[in-house]
diphthine methyl ester synthase
Amino acid sequence: MFYIVGLGLCDEKDITVRGLEAVKGATRVYLEAYTSILMVQKERLESFYEKPLILADRDMVETQSDEILHQADQLDVALLVVGDPFGATTHTDIILRARALGIPTRVIHNASIMNAVGAAGLQLYQFGQTVSLVFFTETWKPSSFYDRIKENADLGLHTLVLLDIKVKEQSDENLARGRKIYEPPRYMTIPLAVKQMIEVESDRQGGVLHPDNTLAIALSRVGGGDEQRIVAGTLADLLTAPQDAFGEPLHSLIIVGKRLHHLEVEYAEAFAVDRQRWRTVASSIYGCALDD
């Protein structure tokens, strides 16, 4: 049996009982280590699970999956992923490969940012399409995310924006020369994400991401107890807030939709950079009826 086991969002104790049983019964256990990050080291997982873990990087998962799936039709093999197994298309792909080889598969779900984003106080059924925002370069500034945010905004829906991470990435030169030299890990921050969004808004002029009139909520280390951070405000507020206000990576961002309920405003107000401005924009721009 090939198991894909969700680890949840925080540490070694977030695994489900069903997931832990699968890990303990597996002959080989792989830890997928590039689509997201856990808040604890591999050694803590190994100690708690009482199993050695094999790190599975991008190359192994995407191009060497045969190694992971070897004899999984005869033995139990587990692949551990941060969050929920279906949070990344990579994991869908490896399941399809397993099925093609006649290997039975089982998915064990867990919490992910897709549902834990409710910690910001916004109603989950008011979210539209989730988008990803990548690091811009001098020559590559993809802006298709803007179209998806606009589609959500036109329906009054919130947008969850997942910020880019770069783990085990090669420079163009090293890639061209075939050198296995990797760049240091990078994680996109909230201020950089907002800066890039405002840059695209300046080009598009669609009024979707106006710095002073667009409400947004920044999140980091959701589910991480004392490490969790939630910061609410206009895009301009988030752009100028001190970096340490947002906590450690991973960071995510919510663009608030116009179909905003007063309870959402009141809940998120506790996280606002400026509570009065949060309420004023929610009332005057978003049309949300609030008690004085």
Remarks:
- The longest strand covers residues 215-220.
- Residues 57 and 143 are 28 Å apart (CA to CA).
- The radius of gyration is 21 Å.
